[in-house]
Write a structure and sequence with these properties.
- The relative contact order is 0.19.
- The longest helix is centred in the N-terminal third of the chain and has 30 residues.
- The chain has 12 helices and no strands.
- It has about 260 residues and is mainly α.
Length: about 260
């Protein structure tokens, strides 16, 4: 039992904290129709993980560095070229995925792509909790400003909002959250936590406050369920987090449909 808790405890703490923050940040991403950006950003971390494994330093530090650098490059290119975030992220993520696949050791490939609950330590969990709390706090500060810039960039600028700075802060916070979740979900699937919980909440929410809260709750439920299932049936955590979240989404849609068409 003690050994199981040493493995399960950090994974659960990480799953809950990352799920909460990813769901909260994802509520903005879904509203702005940037869902593919969150998914693609998770793949950008792969070269950083690969470099950490090759040169024997913490792979998460490599993931953080690459994600931060990529977020700044994406933000800058969007301002220079006026191309959409989706276009720029799509180009960068395919390059990053190709480079990561070429240089990552084959023995570590599955863990990097799909996560491994047994590799999560209490130090990792503490870092994830701190990052998640900071991400939620800072996102809360910029939430209304981001919504205003999404509705009308000209109106936001006239109200004294620095839209470019708000976009950069948001991209950096998403990158931080994605990096924090890589160990349990993997670089291939962690973007799911930024998309599906928010999509689930959107079907139930009449206002922004309820929407953001439900997004966080559904994110935490997905992360927790995936970690628990992984520890009990021995399958990779990442795919089980995705399955759990999709099951919740499907259940919510069916319930909504049943209520709508019930006599």
């Amino acid at each position: 039992m003690r050994v199981m808790m040493d493995v399960l405890g950090p994974g659960l703490l990480t799953g809950i904290s990352v799920g909460l923050s990813a769901g909260y940040l994802g509520s903005l991403m879904v509203l702005k129709k940037m869902s593919l950006v969150g998914d693609a950003l998770s793949h950008v971390a792969l070269p950083g993980l690969a470099l950490g494994l090759l040169f024997n330093f913490n792979p998460l530090m490599g993931a953080f560095a690459v994600l931060f650098g990529s977020a700044v490059i994406i933000w800058r290119l969007e301002r220079i070229t006026r191309l959409s975030f989706e276009t720029i992220v799509g180009a960068i993520f395919t390059l990053a995925l190709a480079v990561g696949m070429l240089i990552i050791p084959e023995v570590d490939l599955l863990e990097a792509l799909f996560g491994n609950i047994s590799s999560v330590t209490y130090v990792d969990a503490a870092v994830a909790i701190i990052i998640s709390a900071m991400a939620i706090f800072l996102t809360r500060i910029i939430y209304s400003k981001f919504i205003m810039s999404m509705l009308s960039e000209e109106l936001a600028i006239s109200a004294g909002i620095n839209v470019a700075r708000i976009n950069l802060i948001y991209l950096l916070l998403v990158s931080l959250t994605v990096a924090a979740g890589i160990k349990i979900v993997g670089s291939l699937l962690v973007g799911f936590l930024v998309i599906v919980p928010a999509a689930t909440a959107k079907t139930l929410s009449p206002n922004l406050l309820r929407y953001s809260i439900l997004s966080s709750i559904f994110g935490a439920v997905s992360g927790t369920s995936g970690v628990l299932l992984s520890s009990f049936i021995g399958l990779p955590t990442g795919p089980l987090v995705v399955v759990s979240g999709v099951v919740v989404f499907g259940a919510v849609v069916l319930i909504r449909w049943a209520v709508k068409y019930s006599p």
